[in-house]
Structure to design on (451 residues):
């Protein structure tokens, strides 16, 4: 390109870039106005999702008495689910004389209850608390307690020394079916664990009565119990903790913050419809008569859109990153030092945005360009996981959404704001570059045909 044509091309690029930069302050004011509404709507939506998706924990009361409580066959046997009690001792009436009295649990019993109640598999389903007998009866009656466990104060010591003290469990009539079933499953699992440990401990003791053992059977039993206890205490080493969420590696609030930023970027692109009017195409043809070709001038216009999206995206994402860090109490200088690592993802997002804007405005008529692009953006957000995570979408939409501009920009934005949660994004960079090129090909062909 000759120097004269290059000067015209450069001046046109600077003029279009200046026009694009003028959108930024106006759109920043609009973003500030709708930010409150977006935050409010997101908070309400997340509250509804959380209330519908969470399981209410069963409230379990524990009553400790001076001796085990049992029931008569004609009493509350239908409400009892103590498997260990059923197998090891018949249900009999309480001892004659005074009724069992409330008492404080032994230290080991309290420790065992706290240990079990803090297990991940238990605390997500049930909440335990020590109560008095009268409180337990009242709780079962008014529904504040879903179940009550009656144990003697020395239950732990009895299990440890081989005394099978019965345990009575009463389920409230008003307990929800799901919570009741889950709690019953926990009880059944706990009984099986105790049976396994007891069986392993008592086996060498029984063998010692028939055979001569080198080591004392009690010592062998203590050793086996110690191995079981260490395995239970270190149970997390046996499993990999995997969190399954419709939001992927992000939290719900982080996901919708990413969606809000992505929506702002796409809505910012609606304003560029003024770059592609019939008057602008006439200007391109006039400049092409005495200067660069129409293709070169369209490239300058595309670069102007790219630079404008890059500047706006930088301010928007950097501001969001700093605000999130301030809310979390993170040092702001560290955020500023780490932000340059996001430049490749910013460039990819700006390039994809520019290609999308160029394609849509090439084919839409002047009168419907802005409104039509807004409708397309809303449609893409619905089918690409912008409003709802892709896990909630039908399989057909889920496969299409993976290569949509909205979904790819969401991935890039999430990598910029939460790099530790997004992992490697080389695939997103490659797909963004490929989709940008794919969008420009029909835009270029359509532009040539239109002119």
């Amino acid at each position: 390109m000759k120097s004269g044509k290059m000067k015209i091309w450069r001046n046109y690029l600077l003029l279009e870039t200046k026009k694009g930069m003028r959108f930024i302050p106006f759109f920043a004011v609009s973003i500030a106005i709708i930010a409150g509404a977006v935050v409010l709507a997101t908070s309400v939506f997340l509250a509804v999702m959380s209330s519908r998706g969470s399981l209410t924990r069963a409230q379990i009361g524990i009553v400790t008495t001076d001796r085990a409580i049992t029931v008569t066959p004609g009493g509350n046997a239908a409400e009892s689910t103590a498997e260990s009690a059923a197998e090891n001792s018949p249900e009999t009436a309480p001892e004659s004389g005074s009724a069992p009295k409330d008492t404080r649990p032994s230290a080991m019993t309290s420790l065992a209850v706290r240990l079990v109640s803090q297990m991940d598999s238990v605390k997500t389903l049930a909440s335990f608390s020590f109560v008095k007998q009268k409180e337990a009866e009242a709780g079962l009656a008014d529904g504040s307690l879903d179940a009550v466990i009656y144990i003697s104060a020395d239950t732990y010591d009895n299990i440890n020394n081989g005394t099978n003290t019965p345990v009575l469990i009463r389920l409230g009539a008003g307990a929800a079916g799901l919570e009741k079933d889950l709690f019953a499953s926990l009880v059944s699992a706990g009984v099986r664990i105790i049976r396994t440990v007891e069986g392993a401990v008592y086996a060498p003791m029984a063998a010692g009565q028939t055979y001569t053992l080198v080591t004392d059977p009690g010592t062998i039993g203590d050793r086996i119990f110690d191995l079981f206890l260490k395995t239970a205490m270190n149970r997390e080493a046996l499993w990999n903790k995997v969190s399954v969420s419709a939001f992927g590696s992000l939290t719900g609030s982080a996901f919708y913050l990413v969606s809000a930023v992505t929506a702002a970027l796409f809505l910012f692109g609606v304003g560029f419809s003024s770059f592609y009017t019939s008057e602008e195409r006439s200007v391109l043809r006039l400049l092409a008569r005495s200067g660069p070709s129409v293709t070169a001038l369209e490239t300058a216009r595309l670069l102007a859109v790219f630079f404008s999206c890059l500047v706006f995206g930088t301010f928007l994402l950097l501001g969001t990153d700093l605000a999130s860090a301030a809310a979390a109490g993170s040092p702001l200088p560290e955020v500023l030092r780490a932000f340059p690592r996001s430049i490749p993802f910013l460039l990819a997002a700006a390039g994809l945005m520019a290609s999308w804007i160029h394609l849509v405005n090439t084919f839409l008529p002047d009168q419907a360009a802005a409104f039509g692009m807004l409708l397309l953006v809303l449609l893409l957000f619905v089918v690409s996981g912008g409003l709802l995570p892709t896990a909630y979408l039908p399989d057909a939409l889920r496969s299409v959404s993976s290569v949509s501009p909205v979904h790819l920009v969401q991935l890039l934005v999430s990598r910029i704001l939460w790099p530790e949660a997004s992992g490697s994004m080389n695939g997103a960079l490659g797909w963004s570059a490929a989709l940008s090129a794919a969008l420009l090909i029909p835009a270029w062909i359509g532009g040539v045909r239109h002119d």
